[in-house]
Amino acid sequence: MKRFLLATVALAALSAPAAAADLATKYPVKAVAVVPVFSWTGFYIGGNFGYGGDKFTLDEVNTYYGDYYSAESRSVNSSGFFVGGQIGYNYQFANNVVLGLETDLQWTNIEGKYSENYATYYGYTSTFNAGASVDYFGTIRARLGYAFDRFLPYITGGAAYGKTALNINSSYYGEGSDLWSVSGSSTKWGWTVGAGVEYAITNNWTFKTEYLYVDLGSTDFSYFGTCCGGSVNYNDIYSGSVDTKFHTLKAGVNYKF
């Protein structure tokens, strides 16, 4: 009897590891998959298009024959489309704050024109035409945003530059006639501020919309004419400035490296 009991215990001890091995084989432990978190960190390049405009403010001082003085201020509505590209870099911190630097360049037809015909003393008539435009503009801006995974709202601001052009002509018909004009262009520096939102469609492609207010400062001008070709001549000196400020709204895409 004792021999039978000892043989039973020994058989049970030998079969326990095999049973444990069978259980491990039948019920494996599955690994938990880790979902990668999107990050805005990296360089990017892209393109955009948009629409802009506001008012060009034309301030002019007119001196006749050295002693007669007049001053006028005119607001010229401006508008136009633009298209361009941008390049930049973002860094996303552990707390989801995103800090970036971006520069862009836009080719545009934003312009405004003003025309006036009016009568002067003794039935003499005069015309005045003015036009101002922005041929291109660009910005160098910092961006500060907060990432909600693939959605990034941000504020932005920095320096702005652009090529502005001016064309003014005036005519006078009376005892005689006279025409005089001034035109020219220059590259101006100013500032810009705005805000936008950007969304990551894939890990590499993003879509954004952005508003910017651009102030390129003022462009000074002056020109000289002699009126009127009859028995009395007047030396006319015109001088003034044109303020170039406009709003922009654009949409664009970026490729993130």
From TrEMBL:
Mind listing the UniProt keywords for this protein, alphabetically? Cell outer membrane, Membrane, Signal
Q: Where are the transmembrane segments?
A: none
Locate the Outer membrane protein beta-barrel domain: which residues?
7-257
Where in the cell? Cell outer membrane
Query: Where does the signal sequence lie?
Result: 1-20
Give the InterPro entries listed for this entry.
Beta-barrel_OMP, OMP-like, OMP/PagP_B-barrel
Extract the Pfam families matched here: OMP_b-brl
Question: Which GO cellular component terms, listed alphabetically, does the Swiss-Prot or TrEMBL entry include?
Answer: cell outer membrane
Q: Which family does it belong to?
A: Belongs to the Omp25/RopB family.
What is the name of this protein?
Porin family protein
